[in-house]
Amino acid sequence: MSERDNAFFNRADAFIALANEQMEKGVAAGEVSTSFMYSLARYTAWFSASGWTKSQHMADSRDETIEFFVKEYRQMLEMNMDDYIQNFDQYIQVSTELKQKD
């Protein structure tokens, strides 16, 4: 793995650590996830806006920009869902009580 790849995953891990800190404070995982998604959407909108010189240019590319980011997110989500499916027992600790319900 290159230094660039390491930096990418280190940044991602830092965001995940911040989300985990919120859960340690008693915030429900669903609420943390929703805040996480909102913050990513807000940051992505800012990132997109910062690349334009006029609001109209941004507006003209709005749908294309959204399509690009949704496609990228979907690919990352699919990759991570597949990883969790393949490594479920290693990543997720299911309580004995839940196991008995299956």
Description:
This protein is an all-alpha fold. The protein folds into two domains: 1-51; 54-102. The protein is built from six helices and no strands. It has helices at 3-24, 29-49, 55-60, 62-86, 88-91, 96-101. It is elongated. InterPro entries: DUF3144 (IPR021490). It comes from Methylophaga marina. This is DUF3144 domain-containing protein.
Compact description:
This protein is mainly α. Helices cover about 80% and strands about 0% of the residues.
Radius of gyration: 18 Å
Q: What's the total number of strands?
A: 0
DSSP helix fraction: over 70%
In terms of per-residue confidence, which ranges show pLDDT below 50 for 5 or more consecutive residues?
none
Q: Sheet with the most strands?
A: none
Q: Compute the separation of the termini in Å.
A: 39 Å
Q: Count the DSSP helices.
A: 6
Strand content: under 5%
* Global mean pLDDT: 92
Q: Which secondary-structure class do the elements indicate?
A: mainly alpha
Describe the global form: elongated
Count of the domains: 2
User: What is the succession of H and E elements?
Assistant: HHHHHH
Main features:
102 residues, 2 domains, mainly alpha, elongated, DUF3144, DUF3144 domain-containing protein, 6 helices
